Amino acid sequence: MRPQIRTIQVTGSAKKRIVSDFIEWTATVEASAANRTEAYRALHDHAKRTEEFLIKGGVPKDQIWLSSASVDPSYETQYQGTGENRIEKQVLTGYDAVQEIKVRSNDVALVEKMSREVTELLEQGVTVSSDAPEYFYTKLGDVKIEQLAEASRDARTRAENIVASAGGAEIGSLRTADMGVINVNPANSTQGSWDGNNDTSSLEKDIITIVHATFELK
Question: What is the pTM assigned to this prediction?
Answer without folding.
Answer: 0.81
